[in-house]
Amino acid sequence: MHALIQGVILGILTGGVYALMASGQTLIFGIMKVVNLAQGAMVIMAAYLAYQLFTRFGVDPFLAIPITTVLMFGFGVVIELLFLRPLRREDKSELSLLVTFAVALLIEGALSVTWGTTYRSINANYANSSWTLWGYQITLVRLWAFLLSLVALGLLFWILNRTRFGRAVRATVQNPESARLLGVEAQWVSALGFGLGAATAAAAGSVYGLLYPFYPGSHYDLISRLLSIVVLGGLGSVGGAVIAAVIVSTSSAIVAATISPAWSEMTFFVILILVLLIRPQGLFGNVDRGAI
Amino acid sequence: MRLPSVLRGGVFVALLVSLPLFGLQHWFLNLLVFVLMYATMSSAWNLVGGFAGYPSLGHAAFFGIGAYTIALIFKGHVLTTGYEPFLLLPLVGLVGALIGWPIALISMRTRADVFAIVTITFLFVVQTLAFNLHDLTGGSQGASLPIAPFSAANFELPFYYVLAALLIFTMGLTFATMGSKLGLSLVSIRSDEDKARGVGVRTMGVKVLAFSVSVGITAMVGAVWAYYQSFIYPQFAVDPLITIAIVLMTFLGGRGTLWGPVLGAVILESGQQLLTYQLGAVQLYLIVYALLFLVIILLLPRGILPTIEDRLRMRRRRRRADAAAALQGDPTPSNQTDSAPMLRGSAS
User: Fold this and answer.
1) Nearest Cα to B57, choosing from B44, B43, B40, B45?
2) Does B84 map to a domain?
3) Does residue B15 lie in a domain region?
4) Cβ–Cβ contact B272 with A under 8 A
5) Residue A159 belongs to what H/E stretch?
6) Is B319 a member of any domain?
7) Which of A180, A211, B9, B82 is most buried per CB count within 10 Å?
8) Rg of the Cα trace of chain B?
9) pLDDT in tens, A204-256
10) Is B112 within 8 Å of A93 when comparing Cβ atoms?
11) Structure confidence by residue, pLDDT tens digits, B79-118
12) What domain range includes position B72?
């Protein structure tokens, strides 16, 4: 029982970080109907940026987030302009999968050339301190990571619900044609939306680097988790992605605590299969969109 | 139309059979073995990814399943002739198809993008399993197969011919499919699945069948590869790069064509081998590969063969239009030449 509750605590805290990564991915899908297979690679790339800032200039990974976020936002916009915009509309969804996969490989290759292929980790001085609450351990880093993810998600919701750009994004998600008719410049919404997705990856990347050791190939581990979360939440639904992230990471933490850590990877796939069998559109997805 | 394609096929088979008779060097035969491997897998992927328009990103999982199946069957065996694993290839194909069938049944309830998500997730699950199921796969220490008892001078030849047979089989299958109701059903699924179902195409059965056959062939190639390597590790047997290579080759040559995947495999695999010799470092090779991929998709989104075909058709049409314009331009000789283009048109 103790292990179970410990697993739940761990799962919820980690879920916040995954929620951040997945919200970017589902946002990109919502706006552009593009499944971004490079989301995991962008997270790892941001982790390396935070690592570099930390080891070279001693910038705390949490404080590095504004810097990495801006850098990754620009990176995302450039990727969209260079590689996704030129795709023709009739086979965009199919080709964009391959393009984003290629971008993931490109990032992986660039990271390997720059930093090598060995594992790196960000060892902040608070990395190992933890609290014990009624016999349950809560590592400080995870708690901070969770709180930071909440703040970042709050910021994302604020952008989406309270700004002009956010309104344009939501209009594009709901109905691209009408949005365009009403004067939303879909091209720019796409570019900035992809940048915004990359920015959430950047915020999550700093935290990920603090929590886990990483190497350029780590994005393969991330991407299948992210995809399961996004499908469970319903493609394109940011709120759904947040809830799904907590569900998925909690159940995988429970599996890790009660059965074996080696099998927790399988949890993602089992959840994905169950979703497709029972509710293919996900928890909060639209049925009429035609993608599913 | 019928005769040239038979002729083309005949020339291709003759070329495949006679190629090793020229006394090729080992490195070149080795290259050919890998080209054939990828040509077969791309042709198989083309059945479901090219014709039906379901871009599977999980084919590498079935490559690995085939590799581990043959490793399990021959665990601790000593081979006498060395041909036993080849004889059991149909069994491996069956295993691959049987595992692929329920996967297709579940994942093909969704359309292109979600289907790709499910298949790529399946790929990573199989990789995790290959690492975790120590008793079956040997985990990260790898699994060994009996070493093929072929003479060192002709070591590659049996593998070459088996793969050539697999390629010819796959291409024959593709050719037969293209001319049949099955092929028509697959293409109709690609262009508009709802409409296809509306007019009575049994979409689910057709696409699940295509997927199962496709991954069955991929599993067989994986088995041949494992036997050729005689030692397999999870990270190479279930490698996302294999998926990417297969898809890229099919896209480069031309999706939904008979010769496109083969052409793509010849170009890319020989290019890749050269690159690895030249660049050495795996990481640099990743960058070059990714850039190549992006350039191909952005410049030739439909592949080489369809683009060339389009160009030729355009040129022919233009020439015909020019001829017609010339005829209209001066009416005097029109009486003599008028009937000639008509005749030629009806004969072709």
Assistant:
1) B45
2) yes
3) no
4) no
5) helix A140-162
6) no
7) A211
8) 23
9) 998 888 888 898 888 888 888 888 898 888 887 888 888 999 998 888 888 88
10) yes
11) 778 888 888 899 999 999 999 999 998 888 877 677 888 8
12) 27-240
